[in-house]
Amino acid sequence: MTRHGGSRTLKRLNTPKFLQIKRKHGKFFMTPSPGPHPSRLCLPLLHIVRDLLEIVDNYREAKKLIGLGNFKVDRKVVKDRTFPVGLMDVLTIVKTNKHYRILPDSHHGLILHEITEAESTFKLCRITQKTTLKGGNIQLNLHDGRNIFISVKDPKNPKEDIYKRMDVLKITVPEQEILKVLKFEEGNLAIIMSGKNIGQLGKVLTILKRFGPKASTVSIQHNSEHTETLYDYTFIIGEGQSEINLPKSE
Question: Mean per-residue pLDDT for 66-80?
Answer without folding.
Answer: 97
